[in-house]
Amino acid sequence: MKKEIIFKLNDEMVSVTVDSDELLLDVLRDKFGLKSPKRSCGRGECGACSVLLNGKSVRSCIIFAVEVAGQEIITFEGLQKEGMTDLQKSFLEHNSFQCGFCTSGVTITATEFLQKNPKPTVKEIKEALAGNLCRCTGYSSIVDAIYDYTKKKGE
Ligand code: FES
Ligand code: FES
Q1: Is the dihedral of CA 77, 81, 84, 87 positive or negative?
Q2: What is the CATH number of domain 2-78?
Q3: Is the CB–ligand 2 distance for residue 135 below 6 Å?
Q4: Strand partners, 13
Q5: Test site for ligand 2: of 40, 94, 98, 144, most ligand atoms within 8 A of the Cβ
Q6: Which ligand ends up closest to the CA of 38?
């Protein structure tokens, strides 16, 4: 069954017609051309498809698009509407990616986490990112980038 939904996407109200069993991940990628949420495990386990739903990091591969009607979604693209953020610059400075497949999901998770805990310890950062898998195993440089970002922000 098809249904029209209206929601806020990266600061703009949008409407789209979706099937009742269509996944948010597919709608974002195929109907809005937003390619930052990636399909990997497809089971909510790797974090590659993460987006912010009302400010909370969620896995878009296990959410039906109809569920976000009337809600707010922010993707990695939405985070950098005004240009690269300081957090993203820190990732660049620390070479925190190899293939980059996990980067948008990690950034979404980190964004939510840092809003709740702007001055985390390294251990807390590692715990926050435990659900985001990096197949290139670049974890230490990712953690370094986030920690360094929080230190500079606190100066
Ligand atoms: S693709 Fe969604 S959590 Fe892995
Ligand atoms: S940089 Fe390749 S999966 Fe993380």
Answers
A1: negative
A2: 3.10.20.30
A3: yes
A4: 8
A5: 98
A6: 1
Residues of the chain with CATH 1.10.150.120: 86-154
pTM: 0.95
Q: How far apart are CA 77 and CA 142, in angstroms?
A: 19
| CATH 3.10.20.30 domain extents, the chain | 2-78
Over its length of 155 residues, how does the chain's per-residue pLDDT go in tens digits?
A: 999 999 999 999 999 999 999 999 999 999 999 999 999 999 999 999 999 999 999 999 999 999 999 999 999 999 998 899 999 999 999 999 899 999 999 999 999 999 999 999 999 999 999 999 999 977 999 999 999 999 998 77
* Pocket lining: 95 vs ligand 2, CB cutoff 6 Å: no
CATH class entry, domain 86-154: mainly alpha
At residue 121, what is the residue type?
T
Q: How far is the CA of 43 from the centre of ligand 1 (A)?
A: 6
For 8-30, the three-class secondary structure string (H helix, E strand, C coil) is: EECCEEEEEEEECCCEHHHHHHH
* Distance in angstroms (rounded) separating the CA atoms of residues 102 and 40: 9
